[in-house]
Design a protein that fits this description.
Elements: E1 2-8, E2 11-16, E3 26-35, H1 38-46, E4 55-63, E5 75-78, H2 87-90, E6 115-119, E7 123-125, H3 132-136, H4 138-151, E8 158-162, H5 166-176, E9 181-185, H6 189-195, E10 201-203, H7 210-217, E11 223-228, H8 233-242, E12 243-251, H9 263-268, E13 272-275, H10 281-292, E14 304-307, H11 311-320, E15 326-329
Parallel strand pairs: 8-9, 8-11, 9-10, 11-12, 12-13, 14-15
Antiparallel strand pairs: 1-2, 3-4, 3-6, 3-15, 4-5, 5-7
One zinc ion (ZN) is lined by residues 37, 39, 54-55, 139-140, 143.
Length: 330
């Protein structure tokens, strides 16, 4: 089968690799779409020895002898799974698994490949109402849902979303379900357009100072809840400036640089700051229901697709920070 292998920093190549061999409790899935995650971009840029591609959907093409309740041809996604051995997995907190970034499939093959295999009890069948494209965005939607759940936001809160990449877009859509207003910041024109019907106002920091504008929109109080979704130093600093007193900042964005900030602002405003890394099983299942029922519309985020052979172009595009979720079709 064909698979994208990261051989070095920024060096993704398509290779022929052996097909996965099934245990009796496993199924073989022909991958239909696999989205590029922000975490994949970090792996790509750093050349890390871990598998790429975890946001995928596909169809079952083979089942092990012990598999029950699934048939060849079923459209599916795979539910999150931890190592099942660490302290956090044993507590059921798979999103905090100690081996989260260490799991490999031996040859660095993830779901940017013709086939993947999975344990049958990890499978979530896609109902007829869900397309394969929508299936591939369930995982990022569950990550966004986790961030919103972490925030403890209440009906009628004013929300700021800093950065409208795929996670920011999904956070804005989910937050909008309960918020009095959602104010977002973003510099890419395509991403601003994707959020125009979602956010009450999208501020372009290249044109307008986002801190001044959000304070102006909130009678100088600031937002009740702030989501830092860009993973950048400036937006992390801004998140402290735009939060109201005793407001909550949730950070799903991954900023690997040191962020210079004045901690006295956190004390003076009695801020609550929370990191948000992953999701749990319940959030994954909820995310699929939310998309299936059309509670949020993810379709505008799913328009950019590349064949596996052009995966380097897909990663280049993802690195540019434009548009919605980028899907690769093996
Ligand atoms: Zn992801
Ligand atoms: Zn674990």
């Amino acid at each position: 089968m064909r698979a994208a292998i990261l051989e070095d920093r920024r060096k993704l190549v398509i290779r022929n690799v052996p097909e996965p061999v099934l245990d009796k409790d496993e199924v073989l899935i022909k991958v239909q779409y696999c989205g590029i995650c922000g975490s994949d971009l970090h792996v790509f840029l750093e050349g890390l020895r871990t598998s790429l591609g975890h946001e995928y959907s596909g169809d079952i093409v083979e089942t092990g002898k012990g598999v029950e309740g699934l048939e060849i041809g079923d459209p599916v996604v795979v539910k999150p799974r931890g190592c099942e051995e660490c302290y956090w997995c044993k507590r059921g907190e798979i999103g905090l698994c100690d081996k989260l970034f260490l799991r490999t499939t031996g040859r660095n093959v993830g779901a940017f490949a013709t086939y993947v295999k999975a344990k049958f009890d990890q499978i979530l069948k896609l109902s007829d109402e869900l397309t394969h494209e929508q299936g591939a965005i369930i995982e990022p939607t569950s990550v966004a849902l986790h961030a919103v759940n972490m925030s403890g936001m209440k009906i009628g809160d004013v929300v700021a979303v800093l950065g409208l990449g795929p996670i920011g877009q999904l956070v804005a859509r989910l937050a909008k379900l309960n918020a009095k207003a959602v104010y977002a910041t973003e510099t890419s024109q395509t991403r601003i357009e994707l959020a125009n019907n979602v956010a009450d106002e999208v501020i372009n920091p290249k044109v307008t100072d986002p801190v001044d504008r959000i304070l102006e929109l909130t009678n100088d109080r600031g937002a009740d809840i702030v989501f830092e979704c860009a993973g950048k130093e400036e937006t992390t600093q801004d998140s402290i400036a735009v939060a109201r007193k005793r407001g909550t900042i949730v950070i799903p964005g991954m900023c690997f640089e040191a962020v210079e900030t004045s901690f006295i602002d956190i004390v003076l405003k009695e801020l609550i700051i929370k990191g948000s890394l992953n999701k749990n099983m319940a959030e994954f299942v909820s995310a699929s229901e939310i998309i299936k029922k059309g509670i949020i519309d993810v379709n505008p985020l799913l328009t950019v697709k590349f064949p596996l052979e052009e995966i380097d172009k897909a990663f280049d595009k993802a690195l540019k920070g434009e548009g919605g979720k980028i899907l690769v079709k093996p």
